[in-house]
Amino acid sequence: MKINGRHYRTIWRAEDGESVEIIDQTRLPHEFETATLRTLEDAGRAILTMQVRGAPLIGATAAYGVCLALQEDASDEAVDAAIAYLAKQRPTAVNLRWALDQMRKAIQNLPREERLAAAYKRAAEICDEDVETCRLIGTHGLKIIEEIASRKAPGEPVNILTHCNAGWIACVDWGTATAPIYMAHDKGIPVHVWVDETRPRNQGAALTAFELGAHGVPHTIIVDNAGGHLMQHGKVDVCIVGTDRVTANGDVANKIGTYLKALAAKDNNVPFYVALPHTTIDWTLNDGRIIPIEERPVDEVLKMPGRLADGTVVTVEIAAPGSPAGNPAFDVTPARLVTGLITERGICEATSDGLASLYSEKK
């Protein structure tokens, strides 16, 4: 996708051939900056502090993190330690574990002197595969938007509600939930996106709105609790969200607050779709209630960054001094509340049979 007319991916190999460049998402939307990852620790810190975030991008960053580790030590012991270190940075997104497994397979039977080149090759493939996967998610999800648009009066937009950021900034390019939106917009279908602010880190207000605006997609930022009200008044045609982990039975873990949107959608007969790549499916789990839910630092709840009138970016306290806080980063939406799963292979029901219909090799 483009920023100020220039095409960017969210992560790429630097010109020196060794380090890795990323868009620093902690600086958005007020400042657009890139950061350089030169060591394993840089990659781990980028994942933990959410310089990179979104399940697919976390996986891609971890893949390059293995490459950075191999520059220092290509022994089996060092590889095991690097993978263990990266795996513990964010526990909910299954793409992290998938990408690390892919990297281990790519290098484990090779001589040490061949491992680094093979690792960089596989990491680049993971990134390219993610771009194509998201593009295919977009083509399948586009059909949903086209069908809704066909029932609208000429020029009337399809109103889409999304939560958190499942855009190209959360992937390598295109995004998951946003890919169908971009394709519909580029095709000339009128669309309008209700963007949940997504407390406490405001990924919707800061990131989704940033990238939609950069692409020219009409959108409106709303507070997290406005979605149900809009649904009650017929102002939402469809909900499309992303996910950090989908279990084999169709339960969906996504940013905290997604479950409440799904409940409101069910009560108001609004279709609720989840867009995801195959790498986000955890075939080892059949119950979303046992997905590990990350607890993030309470300062994310008690403080908020913002830009002053003079352009200075500061962090301010917003809560009652001395009050404790909790910060579960994700919740789980039961499969019964999900209208369908949009994947790179097509759209299916959020059930074991539905997923098996697209991924028969996993039966």
Automatic annotation (TrEMBL):
Keywords, alphabetical: Amino-acid biosynthesis, Isomerase, Methionine biosynthesis
SUPFAM superfamilies xref list: NagB/RpiA/CoA transferase-like
Designated name of the protein: Methylthioribose-1-phosphate isomerase
Function description: Catalyzes the interconversion of methylthioribose-1-phosphate (MTR-1-P) into methylthioribulose-1-phosphate (MTRu-1-P). Also catalyzes the interconversion of 5-deoxyribose 1-phosphate and 5-deoxyribulose 1-phosphate. Part of a bifunctional DHAP-shunt salvage pathway for SAM by-products.
Binding site for substrate: 53-55, 90, 203, 254-255
Pathway(s) of this molecule: Amino-acid biosynthesis; L-methionine biosynthesis via salvage pathway; L-methionine from S-methyl-5-thio-alpha-D-ribose 1-phosphate: step 1/6
PANTHER family per the UniProt record, alphabetical: METHYLTHIORIBOSE-1-PHOSPHATE ISOMERASE
GO molecular function: S-methyl-5-thioribose-1-phosphate isomerase activity
Gene3D superfamilies recorded: translation initiation factor eif-2b, domain 1, Translation initiation factor eif-2b, domain 2
Enzyme class: isomerase
Active site: 244 (proton donor)
GO biological processes: L-methionine salvage from methylthioadenosine
